[in-house]
Amino acid sequence: MENKSPPSQLVEVSENILERCGGVPLAILTIGSLLSNKKGRAHTLEYWSKVQKSISSGLDNNHDDVKNMRRILSVSYSNLPPHLKTCLLHLSLYPEDYKIATEQLIWKWVGEGFVKKEQGKSLYEVGGDYLDELINKSLVQPAKFDNANQVCSCHVHDMVRDLIISLSSDENFLTRIGDPQPEYLPSKIRRLSIQTCIPEVVNQLSTMGLTNVRSLTVSSPAFSLLPTLSGFPVLRVLDLTFCMQVDNNNWKDICSLFHLRYLSLKGTSITRIPKEIANLQFLQVLDISSCTEIEEELPSTFIQLTQLLLFHMADSITCAVPRWMCSMSFLFSLSIKLETMGEEDLQVLGNIPSLSELYIQVQKPTQGRDKRLVIDNAYPFRCLKRFSVKGDTMELKFARGAMQSLQTLLLVLDNVHDTFSQFGDLVFGLENISLLEHIVVEFPFDEEDSDEETQMLRNVVQKEVEMNQNKPILTFTQTDAVD
């Protein structure tokens, strides 16, 4: 019988490595992730011995835990492939203990050009793989999971953050103005994150050359102290999320930034989108959600944004789906708010060729409608994997052949009683979505909804899910009613 126990030399090396970890959980996890990547006994001893020497060199015998930990993390970083090093350094722009939304993070990586194309995968999916690798190596930690058990926010351990801030400064990768304040500012800044509104600090920018800045992230209080945006001519990434000082007067400068790939105006005070938006020919990501109510429809020139991958405008524009939207051949993720939902809206959305994620918010039900809109194979939705629909009533029903790529479905009913009153039932046809893996049904505590109606909703949905041959995971979420 083959001896499965490890050779004594390997045991000795592993014990020495563990001793250097000093019992610190992060150190053990990080070094364990690094060592586990090398498969095959033939090379294991040689590789582990090399790692032991790397984390031991330069350390004294005092076993200073902080020094040891820093050395272990440095070795783990140095063993990353170049694309993961870049993505990890990018995390230095976030404040301490900040919960990073993974969707926003991955799209930023796409806008920065960090994510490389892979056969058969979207850029967003490849970026998600990068994040998973960093999590598996214990360099990034999950903070929150969604109902499909996907990481929806993450954070960086303080010691990892200290390391990447130091490395980022050494390599002039990213300059942070805020806490901790860098000892000096480089003459040429490539990526800039402004997290303070202290005038003396921000005023240093006026003495610096900003013409090489490729990425700019600004916290809300700091925007009013910022030089004009036209002073950043080669920007690829502009993140002004929740900067309420940003309004329509800033559009002229923004639309002159011809190199932009990523633009977030989420939660700003803009109330229109100018026709000059078409100047941004390379734009891949545009987020104008949660803005002050935008008064005008999308300009017809919007169709010229042929590289657009993500467009989020929920809670900002209430509109019908423009017919030309089905010509946006690369659009991957869309969130939209409709006044009412009709067959023509679904026809246009269903024919967007690359659409993988769709989030629809319906402002009000269609008057006089007593039969649900039926989604079948006449509405192709060829690539749609994630679908969320929210409305006062649930006006959709899925027929056989509907959404044949769909994996995750979120149905949000603001009023169960009104849904039942309008259609006389709570039947949605969930058994007909053949590849469905996760379904979440969300509804509020509402005095109008009787216990009988909410129980009926649970029973009907449960039965439909049990009839689905793919056996999706079902989650009910009940929220506080909103006036």
Automatic annotation (TrEMBL):
What SUPFAM superfamilies does the entry give?
L domain-like (SSF52058), P-loop containing nucleoside triphosphate hydrolases (SSF52540)
Q: Which domain of life is it from?
A: Eukaryota
Matching entries from InterPro entries are given as: Apaf_helical, Disease_R_plants, LRR_dom_sf, LRR_R13L4/SHOC2-like, P-loop_NTPase, WH-like_DNA-bd_sf, WHD_DRP
Q: Where is the Disease resistance protein winged helix domain?
A: 93-164
Keywords carried by this UniProt record: Plant defense, Repeat
User: Could you tell me one molecular function GO term of this UniProt entry?
Assistant: ADP binding
Q: Which GO terms describe its biological process?
A: defense response to bacterium; innate immune response-activating signaling pathway; plant-type hypersensitive response
Q: Which residues form the Disease resistance R13L4/SHOC-2-like LRR domain?
A: 213-315
Write down what this protein is called.
Uncharacterized protein
